[in-house]
Design goal:
The structure is a single chain. This protein has 153 residues and is mainly α. Helices cover 58% and strands 0% of the residues. It has helices at 32-36, 39-51, 55-67, 73-88, 100-109, 119-139, 141-151. α3 runs antiparallel to α4 (73-88) and α3 (55-67) crosses α6. The longest helix is centred in the C-terminal third of the chain and has 21 residues, at 119-139.
Length: 153
């Protein structure tokens, strides 16, 4: 499961980053992919989504990205069941907003998961974030503050 590093505050360079984590802030306005492709962008976007009570979207999307990298069947089964119970099943603690057909298809196939089990739901959530949340993120105090901080260096 993806977690925000506890020591990362979006305020400067840390030893675990090869470069200043805010170096790419200006490029985040190009696309949601630019935000999602860098750790600092993920953290800032997650912070914004948390403020909008939709943090589950990025957590689900990132968990799906990690899920696709799984190499062993037992790990895949375990992770698939965790993702399903946390995000997909009806009344899940962090239930994502997907259509009932997608939810039913995942439910039908969860007993025999594959690395593509969550692809359709992940695409829907990506589209939701790109279309709805991302434009608001660019106007948010979180992003604008990071941009000002970067530009004042």
């Amino acid at each position: 499961m993806w977690k925000t590093p506890r020591r990362f505050s979006l305020t400067g360079r840390l030893c675990c980053f090869p470069k200043d984590p805010l170096e790419d802030v200006e490029t985040w306005s190009e696309s949601v992919d630019k935000v999602l492709s860098c750790k600092a962008g993920q953290i800032a976007f997650r912070q914004f989504l948390k403020s909008e009570y939709s943090e589950e979207n990025i957590v689900f999307w990132l968990d799906c990205e990690e899920y696709k990298k799984i190499k062993t069947t037992p790990e895949m089964i375990s992770s698939a069941n965790r993702i399903y119970s946390e995000f997909v099943q009806t009344e899940a603690p962090r239930q994502i907003n997907i259509d009932c057909g997608t939810r039913e298809n995942i439910t039908r196939n969860i007993s025999q998961p594959s690395l593509t089990s969550f692809d359709s739901a992940q695409k829907l959530i990506y589209s939701l974030m790109a279309r709805d949340s991302y434009p608001r993120f660019l106007k948010s105090a979180i992003y604008q503050g990071l941009l000002r901080r970067t530009n004042s260096r």
